[in-house]
Amino acid sequence: MGLRILITGASGFIGGRVAAAATTTAEAGHVRLLARRPPAPPSAGPEGTPQVETVRGDLRDPASLRRACEGVDVLIHCASAIGVDEETARAVNDEGTRSLVDAAVRAGAGRIVALGTASVHGRGPFRAAAPGTLPVAPVSATSRTRAAGERYVTEAGGTVLRPHLVYGAGDRRMLPGLVGLLGALPGPLDGGTSRHSLVDVDDLAHVLLGAALSPRTRPGPYYVNHPEPVPVADLLAAGETLLAHRAGPRRGPAVDIAEARRLLADHPFALHHLDMLATDHWFADDRPWRELGRDPGPPFAEGFTRHAEWYRSHLGPS
Questions:
Q1: Residue 117: how many CB atoms within 10 A of its CB?
Q2: Residue 42 in contact with residue 23, Cβ under 8 Å?
Q3: Taking a C-beta distance cutoff of 8 angstroms, is the pair 201, 167 a contact?
Q4: Where are the alpha helices (DSSP H) in the chain?
Q5: Which pLDDT belongs to residue 292?
Q6: What is the average per-residue pLDDT within 185-197?
């Protein structure tokens, strides 16, 4: 008969990829997609793939969550509110996740897997940080409320997967934010020698689904990133490539971190990206790939090229 899987955030950047993967796996018997604005129903897959149902729900509406959880075996929670005011973040990420987890437990779901974030640890430097070695020390409303949501999942015996930076087609925050930062400077950024953990959105989605299906998945948090940390120079090169497509070649001299901070003093969003880039954010955890039998895919320099055309189309000319 197969497992009955509920996926939240099915219309989002990552949740949409998880939904696409789930609807083609034979291990699922029925896939229920929860979204505030349900996407168009997926086309029927080949024989042997799961039935797919799309339902409307909201993490701020506990009754809709109880209905969505009825009869499910597995919950994959990918929905969150990012970059919103603190009241909304608390209602969605904290209280909403608590209501969802309660509903899943009451419905008898045997496994809960949630998409978390390494930002719950606050700002680095983090160098080859292993699971269980860092305190939870969030510094923003988004990360504070997501940390609270993660706690409900783990207290219920569930699993949390924490990526650091996620890239790929559909990314409207990470690399576009970097391009915005670079575009605010008169020349290329000399970012120093920091290293960063990244993961391709498609690889992350397959790990989320794998964790939900594998008997080897352990309760508690995992870090999910490509095993090879990315030198900041590679990240900046990708950003400069996209910026050149948007605005033409650069002519100014290189700008170091200190000078960039001075120039961006009135741009808090760009300063946030700059501070992250200037500091190591490298998390080491091979369990998602080793224990769940998933391939981490190519390193960033190669993986970026697969998505470059989408980024160019999304960013467009200036």
A1: 22
A2: yes
A3: yes
A4: 15-22, 62-69, 86-89, 97-107, 141-155, 174-183, 201-213, 232-247, 257-263, 268-277, 287-290, 300-315
A5: 84
A6: 95
Residue of 100, 97, 134, 95 lying closest to 118 (CA atoms) = 134
* Closest to 156 measured CA to CA, from 104, 88, 224: 104
Reference 123, options 134, 110, 109; nearest CA is 134
Structure tokens at 269: 């969003």
Confidence band, pLDDT 50/70/90 cuts, at residue 42: low
Rounded distance between C-alpha atoms, residue 179 and residue 82, angstroms = 19
pTM above 0.90, yes or no: yes
Question: Within 13 Å of residue 27, how many CA atoms lie on the same side as its CB?
Answer: 12
Model confidence at 65: pLDDT above 60: yes
- Band of residue 314 on the pLDDT scale cut at 50, 70, 90: very high
Looking at residue 189, its amino acid is: L
111 DSSP β-pair partners: 74
State how far the Cα of 30 lies from the Cα of 50, in Å rounded to an integer: 5
Domain boundaries, the chain: 3-168+200-226+282-297
Share of the chain above pLDDT 70, in %: 96
Task: Please name every residue paired with 52 in a beta bridge, in sequence order, or none if there are none.
Answer: 31
Q: 34-50 burial by CB neighbour count: b if 16+ within 10 A, else e?
A: bbbeeeeebeeeeeebb
Backbone angles phi, psi at 286, to 5 degrees: -90, 0
| Residue ranges of E strands in 9-65 | 28-35, 51-56
What class has domain 3-168+200-226+282-297? alpha beta
Residue with tokens 């008969």: 1
Q: What is the mean pLDDT of residues 276-291?
A: 95
Strand (E) or helix (H) holding 131: none
pLDDT tens per residue, range 73-93: 999 999 999 989 999 999 999
